[in-house]
Amino acid sequence: MKYVSASxxxxxxMEALKRIGLEESGxxxxxxxxxxxxxxxxxxxxxxxxxIYVKRARLGLINTKAIPxxxxxxxxLALVDGExxxxxxxxxEVMDWCIMRANDTGISGAVVxxxxxxxxxxxxxxxxxxxxxxxxxxxxxxxxxxxxxxTTLTLGTNPIACAVPSDLGFPIVIDMSTTVxxxxxxxxxxxxxxxxxxxxxxxxxxxxxxxxxxxxxGILLPVGGHKGYCLAFMVEVLSGVLSGSLFGRxxxxxxxxxxxxxxxxxxxxxxxxxxxxxxxxxxxxxxxIAQVKSSDLAEGYDRIYxxxxxxxxxxxxxxxxxxxxxxxxxxxxxxxxxSEKISCDLL
Amino acid sequence: MKYVSASxxxxxxMEALKRIGLEESGxxxxxxxxxxxxxxxxxxxxxxxxxIYVKRARLGLINTKAIPxxxxxxxxLALVDGExxxxxxxxxEVMDWCIMRANDTGISGAVVxxxxxxxxxxxxxxxxxxxxxxxxxxxxxxxxxxxxxxTTLTLGTNPIACAVPSDLGFPIVIDMSTTVxxxxxxxxxxxxxxxxxxxxxxxxxxxxxxxxxxxxxGILLPVGGHKGYCLAFMVEVLSGVLSGSLFGRxxxxxxxxxxxxxxxxxxxxxxxxxxxxxxxxxxxxxxxIAQVKSSDLAEGYDRIYxxxxxxxxxxxxxxxxxxxxxxxxxxxxxxxxxSEKISCDLL
Lengths: 347, 347
Known about the structure:
The structure is a homodimer.
Chain A: E1 2-4, H1 6-19, H2 24-39, H3 50-58, E2 69-74, E3 77-81, H4 87-105, E4 107-115, H5 121-129, E5 133-139, E6 160-164, E7 172-176, H6 183-191, E8 201-202, H7 212-216, E9 219-220, H8 226-241, E10 263-271, H9 278-293, H10 309-321, E11 323-325, H11 327-340
Parallel strand pairs in A: 3-4
Antiparallel strand pairs in A: 1-11, 2-3, 4-10, 5-6, 5-10, 6-7, 8-9
Helix pairs in contact in A: 1-2, 4-5
């Protein structure tokens, strides 16, 4: 384990991403997504992803020269083809379009086909908050969950993210997979040699497991039983079926090299100023926050956290201490740097 | 227990609702919402609600003459004051506006303040499906859930509903409270003298309980732990904070007679035709449905259900058999009919 500053990690990621063909601006977006995920403690979506992105690009499975194409737009709603580009770049461009449209019409959305994994969905949703708007992001993912009552992997972990501007210095943010946990969290725990709690997953035979590798080879359980299945189904409809993207069993895992992932997204935003002055909204939100924060505490808890507050606190800390990078991830980054012939001073 | 036909129950509800001052058209909407909930097996939101609606109206806590007022609208987004009318009527009018706007702009939404409980949220979302659109409905409710790590009731059961048109003869529908179960389900079980499973709720002292009355007087647990809390928080922001409605601890229970409920909603829809022909969408959805339906079955399950399929099946059955009305509910309806001096031939 080594602590590496965010800026150093970001520069390293940029160098690798430019090496595989991204322009400066695109490389910066992807590098920022990766490092910001680490800063916020979402290590499973952080720099550990860089080698697999590089590998997929080198295999021609991600198009580093993609320019997202707006196939159709009707006032407030667009259909976008990601042209198999990086999900972070496609998503950012689409969110910027949504922000622009919501400026005029109050609410906007876009469905995206032929895209790729974009890492932490919350980072895309938070882009709207910088403009004083509420951002929404849904995406399908490779199959990880069976339908309720079944055992065949059919739906993804299909996360739901939403970010709301506040006067706290950080937005209120949710970013939740519709499984009990995200696949990448289990992958990260496998890399760290940890067990997973019972109730997260079943093995291939449909039996409860504490082994993260068995879980990755098996079945992730939906959050809240059939409710998680229902949410995952709707995310699949909005991001996969409606966009013209791949959906269900056909979406490819990031470690599947037989073709592009074919991921679909749904991105949207709401312009608060179309309803009330932003300051008034933030003032009202502060009242809700005060209600939440002043709750009596349950046994074993010493404070109430807002959605996104833990991640903000970790970010403040890691901006000081640097980002902890496990030895195994460092080793993979070094190997990747060697094969890409870029300098690596992370060790 | 007695079986009563949907049409007879609806006529009875209409008579009561007109008696308290609703116009024919408004009474029909509310009566349909109540009876359709029963038809779909959501008895907690069905005809058992009629007496409390009548009582609130008689106490002047619901305005039977309300005309929803569009305070502001910006292209695709509206702010609406429900003028303390019935949530079903306010919500239907607002959804119709959303459908009209989505026809032009592809996606639309509305935040609603000063409204009331509208019963089963899915029925409002399904209104969009009749026009070939995808409908969304969120609403805050009276506090039922503490923030994660706390014990003070601050957030409502805050349901999320979404309905998608399919070629199956019924829409795909989700309608889920962000608690493990809805308060009304526990209320219905209390009326039937049933125990609730452990894990649904805590009593006032923060201890697990199987007693529905203790649960109603205590704490409902969020679905999926902190994830349910995060979802409930966002629903509260979108329907309560953003609308200018009451929110958090200030929203009143339907059985609290100290003032209007002050409920807020978020309603929206997506025009599928703005993205692809409706038939193409339905064809793609049918492929996802085929994937889901063909999953291998888990132990103890004999088939896979789609979201909303169980409710559709119950509806088909109850259209034949009539709606089972428990004796206790019949008694309350009879009492209400007597005090309102309307005829009641349900017994």
